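Hey Z.,

So I finally got round to the zinc ion thing we talked about over coffee. Here's the setup:
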Amino acid sequence: MEFGKDKELVMRHCKKCAMPDTRPGSIFDEKGVCQACRNYEKRRTIDWEKRKEQLAKICDKYRREDGYYDCVIPVSGGKDSHFLVHTMKVEMGMNPLLITIGDPFTKTDAGLKNYRNLGETFSCDHILFNLSIDLFRRVTRIAFEELGEPLKFVEASIYTVPMKMSIKMGIPLVVFGENSAYEYGSTEEQSYSATEYILRIFKAIDVDFWLQRGVSIKEVNAIIPPIEEELKECKPEVIFMSYFSPWSSTIHLGIAKRYGFRDLAHEWRREGCIEDFEQIDSVAYMVHLWLKYPKFGFQRTSDIASRRVREGKISLFQAERLIMEHDHKLDQRAMEDFINFLGYTPKEFWDIVERFWNRKIFEKVDGTWKLKNPVYKDLIESKKNA
Ligand SMILES: [Zn+2]
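And the result:
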């Protein structure tokens, strides 16, 4: 049986990093190694100095003398955002306009401080775009109940809003951070241009889906992509920073902390997660991430553990242990924030989640869904035999 081909039937894991082939779009080679590992190996052969020069050339093309904004950076406030602004403003001498798409879930202290810190420490103008709270509540409920993907609407606007703003405001360059398709291994192609990637996202936005479910035409502005003529006429260049600089959460964390970035270490130990410095601003956001678990059999801990294996920070064995201990857990505080905001009881929440357990990869044992073929199978066996 080939890797990745029979993902409907079984769940197989990368021999090197433990990442499962149930990740949508994942590619595995004949040796059972995932494309994310292969892409990571390529880093050693890349001339990063040269790529930095390439970035400098792109910046030279767009840097303005009249003081107007020369690039848009969509930011969340996280460590990667700090790294992006550091690179564009401090290293490249650009004058970025920062744009954040907010969500109305409860914010952590660290999240609030980081968001504020970003504009303040780098002296950047910063636009916060909030969807109507009433709309957010409705579309999030719809997407949770029907797709098991609560933030689908908001996530579309993360791309549409900054792109439309750059066009309308005549800002010629948009800088996104990580090319997740490449870093997580659903493509072998690495390109600095994010245009194709963005166009694919725009194409996949289904405005009718929302209209058919009672969202009014006046409420879908945030997810309507710019029209083709606008894109052609203004042609903002869209780039991925991860092409120009080896993407590393720990390096970014170090840089971000020097600028005043705060992690969650003194605030909240999150269940189901093995770090405290990613996706930390919004309490309920963890629920959106966790919902990958019933659908695909893995979530944040798997993502982070396999990345750490690739980076040589932990062994495959250690990754398996972490995945076994943490990956299935949904953080209680995140869930409570989620259901309180959206108006569900815990029972209603779990009844909805029940629909999404992927019966091909999970089985119910004593009332609990268990993976049929977890990556830590050997660990369980050895415990039994001990
Ligand atoms: Zn791998």
